[in-house]
Amino acid sequence: MIKDLEQLILLAKINKEIDTFLPRIGEINASLESKQNEIDSVEAKAKKAQTEIDDLKTQIVHTNAKIAEFKAKIASAGKKSGSVKNEREAAALVTEEDLARDRLDAANEDIEKYERMIANKTSILGELNEKLEALRGEFSQLSEASAGEIERIESTRARLVEQKERIASESDQKLVVFYDKIRKWAKDTAIVPVRKQACYGCFMKINDVTHSAVLRGEEILTCPHCGRILYKEASVEEVAQSVSEE
Q1: C-beta pairs of 221-228 under 8 Å, 24+ apart in sequence
Q2: Do residues 25 and 150 make contact, with C-beta atoms less than 8 angstroms apart?
Q3: Which of 77, 86, 206, 223 is close enough to 97 for a disulfide, judged by CB 3.0 to 4.6 Å?
């Protein structure tokens, strides 16, 4: 294989590896974001539960005020009973007292209901807070591990970029520009092998003349169908060996 083609294959392999870094970092950040979203969701539920508990406590305060009012009315009715002048006043007083007692009973029932609801929501809040504490611990561990992983990725990426720039500077600049133009639309398939006399970029069969020339590896050839740069499959091991020696 000619040196120019070997250099282009090396560039393609390095570019392909470099292109994997951003998605990997994206996956790491997505994992962190997912965990943070889970924390935010539990925090929102806990906040809602606490707000409901506070509202119920306010209801109890208001209801206790009504209970005091109803007790006062009952006590007042008891005092008035000794000064009634006729049956009509007595009946009205009894009705007023009965109504106050009914409202007092209802208010006491409301208090019991509110207290049961508070107990239930307090239990839920406790579970949410426990879950929240566990999630925050998981996020902290994940964040620490992610930072280390991103640091390793960036270090490897920097090394490969340096290697890529060195190879590009040592290569025929016209060929590098030619390769970069193809890579703009073909991405990581700008340079592909020929297998079973077919381009492994567009998977179209190439003619015998082009196929023979590719197998010889004496010049830069492109697929007559898609325009990708071609190389013989047997050269893959050679290129991999070259990469490991860089």
Answers
A1: 222/182, 223/192, 223/199, 225/199, 226/186, 226/199, 226/201, 226/202, 227/182, 227/186, 228/182, 228/186, 228/189, 228/190, 228/191, 228/192, 228/199, 228/201, 228/202
A2: yes
A3: 77
Q: What angle do CA 121, 122, 126 make, to 5 degrees?
A: 115
Pick from 221, 240, 225: nearest CA to 2: 221
pTM, two decimal places: 0.70
Determine the Cα–Cα distance for residues 216 and 154; give it in Å rounded to an integer: 38
Q: In whole angstroms, give the CA distance from residue 95 to residue 90.
A: 9
Average pLDDT value for residue range 41-56: 97
Handedness of CA 3, 221, 199, 21 (dihedral sign): positive
Residue 234: the pLDDT is 58
Q: What pLDDT is recorded for position 42?
A: 97
Q: Pick the closest to residue 202 from 186, 184, 183 (CA basis).
A: 186
Bridge partners of 229? Answer: 191, 222
Interval 49-103: pLDDT, tens: 999 999 999 999 999 999 999 999 888 877 777 776 788 878 887 888 889 899 9
- Residue 166 pLDDT: 94
